[in-house]
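Quarterly update from the structural biology core.
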Amino acid sequence: MLSLHGKIVAITGASGGIGEATARLLAGRGAAVVLAARRSERIDAIAQEIRERGGRATTCVVDVTKAEDVQRLVATTLGQYGRIDVLVNNAGIAPISPLADLDTESWSAMIDVNLHGMLNGIAAALPAFREQGSGHLVSIVSVAGLSGVSPSMAVYAATKNAVRTLHEGLRTESTDGVVRTTAISPGYIRTDLADSMTDPGIREQTRKNIDAMGIPPAAVARAVAFAIEQPGDVEIGEINVRPTVQA
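Predicted structure, tokenized:
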């Protein structure tokens, strides 16, 4: 039987949505989780609930755009549990808008969080993975851009596809079996991602789409669990998770 028992998993963006659902699911299946996000009160409350249900959880306040914060996350995980088996790069934002709006501030924010944040995760976790002889990098990407870019999503899709490319690059550099990589691309999921969208019209339409067809964050959490519970010689490279009614 495949199992998560004893796995040590650090998760960014764990204060809600997919990150929270992943932390709760993995802890419920026997993993020890380290919840990372900027909202300390929220991750502390989630970790407390996990512990009250018999799970193992701790927290670390992290802004993924700051390399030292992500390094501290890895150090906290190592200090608490002695190793880090998995880093789930989940933190992300989507202040999308048409390119013609020239919202360069939002462009920079998406690049900083979605792309630089993931690179900070690689830089922090890879040395630990190499030293301990194993490790697994999981990133929450997006179905955006898989079959053409939707209007207003060019920069967002570009950051997510850059993450997908980095995953493939890391995979090709890691064929010694030490580091595994998994990119998981959700479609419409019932999260608060729309809250980061600055354009009122796009934000409202996205919320309507989520209400109409969105599936629970636990659907993505189950995909994360499936990928990381595989034996060490099995790598699940990419998973797409979308509602059955989504085009």
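The two ends are 35 Å apart (CA to CA).
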